[in-house]
Design goal:
The complex is a heterodimer.
Chain A: H1 3-20, E1 44-45, E2 53-54, E3 59-62, E4 72-76, E5 79-82, E6 91-99, E7 108-115, E8 120-127, E9 132-137, E10 139-145, E11 152-159, E12 164-169, E13 172-177, E14 187-193, E15 198-208, E16 217-222, E17 228-230, E18 236-243, E19 251-261, E20 267-277, E21 282-289, E22 297-306, E23 312-316, E24 323-325, H2 353-369, H3 373-385, H4 392-408, E25 414-419, E26 422-427, E27 434-437, E28 440-443, H5 444-471
Parallel strand pairs in A: 17-24
Antiparallel strand pairs in A: 1-3, 2-5, 3-4, 4-15, 5-14, 6-11, 6-15, 7-8, 7-14, 8-9, 9-10, 11-12, 12-13, 16-18, 18-21, 19-20, 19-22, 22-23, 22-24, 25-26, 27-28
Chain B: H1 2-17, H2 27-45, H3 54-85
Classes of the chains: A alpha+beta, B mainly alpha.
């Protein structure tokens, strides 16, 4: 090994060892839906404590009855308490415990899941006088009994993918089709006691619903699936959610968003890194992109990941006809041209006799070699999938490393320092004077840069010759 | 027909076989190394960027690293093949 190579490996090893000790990055943690044990609040009215609000003061923190811990929420009278706004993710389930402390009174409780505008998404009716708990989904559906002085766990769950609202009773869930016309992005829980009796609520737990199935779910919110979004394309948002169902066995690294410039063969590609999603996980992505306002674009999505054998996994989001454009389209429909026009077969229907036979044979022979547009598009997408296989992701990381480093380096002429408590600046601006070289006027610091660039190139050529010598 | 075969080979033979990343040294591991290195270089060269062609130096350094790793990998493969050929390492 030459002296140059020895120095290089020593430098590289030192650099690698030094950065290994610096790279202690924490894992990405998904947001947890709202939970409350009521333990953190002061006894008395819950109004204004935590995220809670109320119309009156009939709901209090008390210590007499509790499922766990030292205290719980008690509601008496025609009062209502709520939390929120809590964003409804694709799948969210809330459960809470309710209790009727009296052996004789019959409190009628209503527990609702409502959106931010007050529209009811689901209602659970706790009717002690009938001894039952009902899911009020247009009509009362019996969930189970409501015994006196006994804790019962009820709950709501909202599955945005399946568009269902579920009702839970002691851990058993029943799903019904979700009502239409509510704001899917905001939800609150609402407790209402209706006949001036005491009803206890404790231990609200929230959890994300894991979506069953195999294929990953890409749910864009901007640009919306199957729609034409008209907006300024010089800077626009790409937002949405990716979910990996429980039966999907792979690891998903990136969301690729392709913008096909309509009526051209050009495609722009935005890579949104994902936090290595696996089965049962979801991720809300958000990125900003830039395109030319003079064109319209077709949008498509692709997930890139790897199998457990470190081979490539690709999933293409199937929804088509998603467009973005700066101005409204002039023509009613767009055509997406392939990289080359596929020649069409001759129409033989008008021909007869020998002419038709020759035409059919010609079409048959041509049909064996001429690809259809769909087949070609499929091949085109397959080739694009190769952008995500080794070593291209590594090269992209290297490219990002160089551009990030170069963009981050401050090229000002001063270096600030502090020595023995005294701050100072090493100022190189004295080197920034103009000099005339070969009839050209350049800054001296630029001249120095050119000289060092030449020196770097010379060293590189020296290394390259040495490298080639080692190969052959 | 031909394009169908080509597509089939690419989707079912080439793509599943070609690795997305190197086992035990994935893109995330590489980025976990490069991110702090980038911060380190930004700190080290800020101020010197006034005089030094940093982008050129980094680019050439990258080429050197890739080429040396490539040659290293090639020689490992050659070494293993030579062992099996019986001609000595």
């Amino acid at each position: 090994m030459s002296l140059l190579n020895q120095k290089f490996w020593v430098f590289f090893s030192a650099a690698v060892i030094s950065v290994v000790f610096l790279c202690l990055a924490g894992p990405v943690v998904a947001a947890t839906p709202f939970q409350d044990s009521f333990e953190a609040y002061l006894p008395g009215s819950i109004k204004g404590q935590g995220s809670w609000n109320s119309e009156y003061s009939g709901c209090t923190i008390q210590t007499s009855y509790k499922k766990t811990g030292a205290q719980a929420l008690s509601c008496i009278g025609n009062t209502a308490y709520r939390i929120g706004p809590v964003p409804l993710s694709t799948g969210t389930a809330w459960e809470f415990w309710v209790y009727n402390p009296s052996s004789g009174d019959h409190p009628d409780g209503r527990f609702k899941l409502i959106d931010g505008n007050g529209t009811t998404i689901g209602t659970i009716s706790y009717i002690s006088s009938l001894g039952n708990i009902y899911a009020t989904n247009n009509v009362n559906q019996l969930m189970g009994s409501a015994p006196h002085q006994s804790w019962v766990q009820v709950g709501f769950r909202w599955d945005r993918t399946a568009q269902t609202v579920g009702y839970g009773y002691n851990g058993v869930w029943t799903d019904y089709p979700a009502p239409a016309g509510f704001d899917e992005d905001v939800a609150e829980i609402y407790f209402l006691e209706q006949n001036n009796k005491n009803i206890i609520v404790d231990d609200i737990t929230g959890a994300s619903i894991t979506v069953a199935g195999y294929d990953p779910i890409i749910a864009p919110t901007d640009p919306l699936d199957g729609q034409t979004t008209i907006q300024d394309l010089t800077e626009f948002n790409i937002t949405g959610k990716v979910e990996i169902p429980t039966a999907n066995p792979w690891i998903w690294h990136d969301l690729n968003v392709f913008f096909d410039k309509l009526n051209t063969t050009e495609t722009y590609h935005e890579i949104i890194p994902l936090p290595d999603l696996v089965a049962g996980q979801d991720y809300t992505y958000s990125a900003t992109s830039t395109l030319d306002n003079d064109y319209a674009y077709s949008v498509r999505y692709q997930l890139a990941g790897e199998t457990t054998y470190y081979t490539t996994a690709i999933y293409n989001h199937a929804v088509a006809n998603t467009y973005i454009t700066y101005t409204a389209p002039i023509t009613p429909s767009w055509t997406i041209a392939g990289p080359w026009p596929i020649p069409e077969l001759e129409d033989c229907s008008a021909l007869t006799g020998l002419d038709k036979l020759v035409c059919d044979i010609k079409n048959f022979l041509l049909g064996m070699v001429i690809p259809t547009q769909a087949k070609f598009d499929e091949l085109n997408n397959t080739f694009k999938a190769f952008l995500n296989v080794f070593p291209l992701p590594y090269l992209r990381s290297m490219q990002t490393f160089i551009t990030t480093t170069n963009a981050g380096i401050n090229e000002s002429s001063g270096i600030n320092f502090s020595l023995f408590g005294q701050a100072g600046t090493v100022d190189f601006s004295a080197l920034s004077f103009s000099v005339a070289v070969g009839g050209l006027t350049v800054d001296f610091n630029d001249l120095l840069k050119y000289f060092l660039s030449g020196a770097c190139f010379a060293a590189f050529v020296f290394w390259a010759l040495n490298f080639l010598n080692r190969i052959f | 027909m031909l394009i169908t075969i080509l597509n089939y080979i690419a989707q079912n033979i080439l793509l599943p076989v070609i690795s997305f990343q190197i086992p035990y040294f994935g893109v995330d591991e590489l980025e976990a190394l490069l991110d702090p290195l980038s911060s380190y270089l930004i700190t080290a060269f800020s101020g010197l960027g006034f005089l030094f062609p940093i982008l050129l130096i980094l680019s050439l350094l990258l080429v050197v690293v890739l080429a040396e790793f490539g040659l290293f990998g090639f020689r490992i493969i050659k070494f293993i093949i030579n062992i099996f050929r019986g001609s000595g390492a």
